Amino acid sequence: MKSLPITSLLLFSTSLLSANLLAATNRITPDDIMRFESLKNPVISDTGNMLAVEVTPDRGDSHGLVKNLRGNNEFSVKGGSKPKISHDGRFVAFIDAIPLLDSEKASKKAKKKLKSGLVLLDTSTGEEQRFERVKSFEFNEKGTHLAIWFEAEELKKDDKSEDKAQSLKVDKDDKGSTVELFSLNDLKSITFKDVTAFSFDKSGLNFALAINNIETNKHELRLVKLANNTASIVHSLKQQQFGSIDLSDDGKYLGFTYGDAKAKPFGREYKLSLLNLETSQVVETAKSKDWTLNRYTKLRFSDDSQRLFFGRVPQVSQQLQVTKYEEQADLFDKQIITSNRALRVWHGDDARIKPHEVKQYKKELKRTYLAVLHVNGNNLVQLADLNVPDVEVQQQKRFALASSDLPYRKMITWAGFYRDFYLVDLNTGRKIPLLTQQSSSEEPNLSPGEKFVSYYLHGNVFLYEIAQDRRTNITKELGVSFADEDHDYPSNAPSYGFGPWINEDTGLLLYDKYDIWQVHTGSHDAFKLTAGEGRKHGVQYRVTGLVEDKEHPSVFKSDEKVLLHGYSDIDKGDGFYQAQIGVAGVTPLIEGDYKLKLLARSKDAQTIVYSKEQYDLFPDLYTANYDTPQDAVRQTDLDQQRQGFNWSQSELVQWTNGDGKPLDGVLIKPTNYVEGQRYPVLVYFYRFMSDRLHAFPQMKINHRPNFAWYADNGYAVFLPDIRFEVGYPGETSVQALTSGVQHLIDIGIADPQAVGIQGHSWGGYQTAFAVTKTNIFKAAVTGAPVSNMTSAYSGIRHGSGLARQFQYETGQSRIGESLFKSPQLYIENSPVFYAERIKTPMMIMFGDKDDAVPWEQGVELYLAMRRAGKDVVFLQYQDEPHHLKKYPNKLDYSIRMMEYFDHYLKGKPAPKWLSEGEAYTEYKKAD
Question: What's the average model confidence in pLDDT over 311-331?
């Protein structure tokens, strides 16, 4: 891509550039990586004047950074994380995280009692207020108030008072805690105790609270008029526990649920009523013999206050309990004895296999079926039901999209995820079938004006005209497929997705691989909004810079100028571009050899936040106007962290695969690279990696090799693209890997006697398979690999409870057939069957609580290599999932990985654990 002039966007300040010219001598170490700070969770105020972000090291305590974009004020908030900003930007609230040292020093029991707090920053004065034991906090929509909900007070064991003892009998789900409501104009607050629910309206008029105290039989709804901060009791009940509440935005209604306080929460049946705040009249909604409410019912008014959405269930019952032994005779009662069994029955006709059913149990327990109350007529309509359980509501007034995966739950095991989609009438509940057995990832798209539904099917986009009950393939004559052109899985290719609709439902935007199309919904005429520039130049254009709001998706005006992001498939650079709805053509605004990520846009202003990065440029934050991203202002300067180190660079490499097809990859040269000198090479990969050409290296200690550390330790790092063939994932991976490595050898970069390979998960499988086919690698580290597809095929993903069969038949493992139909393919693609061929030393890593790949797959590979007398070592990290989570384990693995490659690729002496192993040891537990 050609670089354009940038008014305010500077890659480096003059001082940093001068510093960079000096020969840095510091070597990157794990300690540097642990302390290296990154930016997380950037947010911008609705008015676009205030930016807040979390600055966090890989290990240690975060701090919050706040910048006034219209002034010079900048604030640092100790311990601040996950910021929220008030509407006008005057206040910023951060979670006040538990200091790492306090957490590490605490016992397991004490850690459970550690609770985070809240920091409230007044950006007009710089003053901070800190609050302890905060459960949650929320600014209201207008930014005039802040509600802080505190954790419930813990009872002390030595407190034997009658009141305290009595309170222990109240179910924890029924107990409230303190809410403090702050008026942000004067920072005066009102405190409410025993709060179990609260709600702001979006108009900024009211704040409502449900207050419940079963011990004192106090059950009240209180309302705060936010204009003068006066609170009053607007409704109260005797022995009735209030549940969910919500306020209508017109200030007229308070919806609430309530149920018998004497009943246990799990089996408590609730009712729904509307309180008219103007007349104090309570209207109870219609009852149904088929549907009722429970404690999981949530209320939500539509923006126009005309509809109240909530969930219902067919019935409510108490949770089953195990029968206890009470008398001597109970010890011989077969019914009591067997009721204490630990049994799960797996039936062949179960909709879900048992592990998946178990994982989904709590979600299903909380499932409610959406209904709507039309407020003016008190007309209640059930929208979801037992056959079509899922309904997604935005702000349309007549229709919503509904779906069901019930017919396909059994086939999830081997075929993946599918749904039937419907259009549901909000006035009647009638469901209009739209799509049958549609991929769950290809959801239809209801237009804002409710005239059309667009959907993707088999490479084309269709338009359903609701009033005419007519479907039209609107892309069949366009001469291009809208299916993923790089799809190499044994399943139907997915789409590239949809862009926004155009106002009054006159059109919509569609994506092919490169270009954006505008389609007129009336005539079905279509043209390339990007004028074919995408496919012509290999640039993938997509709409960007939209306000993120699931309930209110962006809609473009018929002549609106829109911001596009472009990614060059050729040189891997990014750019921002401008297009105009209704006009073919794109105008470059900023483009070059870097990666751009748009991170946020202000809700009520034109301010955008984005990062710009290269391998040797930290992704600092920039702000700009939506129309002129090229005139950006740099708001952070974490790139200065690199200045004490040598920092390598990345470059694009291209070669021809063994099948004659071109491939791309990224080469990160060692720091202080000398032309003509050969270097040890570490190959890291997964699938497509060349889009990381301009990505700043992730400065973290985890299951991956840290590129900056390896490059500064004298390694070249190679990230090749892999393109697979269905049925032969192992062989096609080896072709790409060996041809890429050979290219590095041919151009004089790689020492042919010092090439190592590391991969994790799917990359781990490819690593393990590769060394059964080639000796080009002199050391291999494989993390969480599948080694035996015949046993892994019917394994379980313990994180989700799903069977693994679909991964082989339609998914990532790309076999495309069942084990029973094509057993030879499973054998041919399994490393364990070819362990005797391996000549490459291998280190295998697994967490023994792996939630994606059964860790026994590592055991199988280890035992096969051990039996064959191969050079193998197995690292079993205890109580760890698919990706290591515990920092001591992540650091240990990173250090051992470097030691491993240093020994086999650089000839350094083997550490003792590698040459002799480590004996099993049990450590005394800390007091």
Answer: 93
